[in-house]
Design goal:
Radius of gyration of chain A: 26 Å
Number of helices of chain B: 1
Structural class of chain B: mainly alpha
Low-confidence stretches of chain B: none
Helix content of chain A: 55-70%
Oligomer: heterodimer
Largest sheet of chain A: none
Number of strands of chain A: 0
Shape of chain A: flat
Order of helices and strands of chain B: H
Radius of gyration of chain B: 15 Å
Distance between the termini of chain A: 59 Å
Order of helices and strands of chain A: HHHHHHH
Strand content of chain A: under 5%
Number of strands of chain B: 0
Chain lengths: 161, 38
């Protein structure tokens, strides 16, 4: 019994070692391939454009550079408090926690700021988002979790069908 | 301690499994880099 157990442990260790070795090899191979691809692209003549695969490192680098440039050009949005209501329309607020990323605590915070309806969130501008992220959400969360897009959908189709 | 004899014995008997695990590892290593660069 003890022998078979120790044998099983040895086999498991062998498999684990093989797996880890494979991980290292796969990682190194991929890095090597990427480096070779990047080197080839860098030495290509610019006069003859060669189609590059959409997932190639050169294409990804170009996309990242374009994105950085775009972000650098955009001036930071000034923060502005979103339009608030003194109370929910018709005395009934929307279930804001139906927006993924908004929990009970955030919903309560939004209500305290006079935001009760999906339509209000759908109307947020970048300046409004800037203002809110300093108060109720971590920087970038509203955009990352697409609160405005979700709210637009929920405002136009409250049943969620 | 298993020793080299033990490792040779294990590899002799279980090499297909070891190769399979290594291939899975290669795929995991390769994909980990793909995921990070995206």
């Amino acid at each position: 019994m003890v022998t078979s157990l120790s044998h099983a442990v040895e086999v498991a260790l062998l498999l684990l070692a093989s797996y880890l070795l494979g991980c290292v090899l796969g990682y190194a191979a991929h890095r090597l391939v990427r480096r070779l691809e990047t080197g080839q692209v860098a030495t290509m003549p610019t006069s003859a454009p060669v189609p590059i695969a959409s997932s190639s490192p050169a294409r990804r680098l170009a996309r990242a550079a374009a994105r950085d440039e775009q972000e650098a050009v955009q001036p930071p949005a000034p923060s502005q408090r979103p339009a608030e209501l003194s109370g929910p329309r018709g005395g009934k607020a929307d279930d804001l926690h139906r927006i993924k990323g908004i929990g009970a605590k955030t919903e309560s915070a939004l209500n305290n700021l006079g935001i009760y309806h999906f339509s209000q969130i759908a109307a947020w501008t970048p300046a409004n988002i800037e203002w809110l992220e300093g108060r109720i959400a971590i920087k970038g969360r509203i955009r990352r979790e697409q609160w405005v897009e979700q709210a637009t959908l929920l405002a136009t189709d409250p049943a969620g069908s | 301690m298993i020793g080299w004899d033990g490792i040779a014995f294990l590899l002799g008997h279980y090499w297909p499994y070891a190769v399979g695990a290594a291939l899975v590892g290669v795929a995991a290593g390769w994909l980990s880099l793909s995921g990070r660069s995206r």
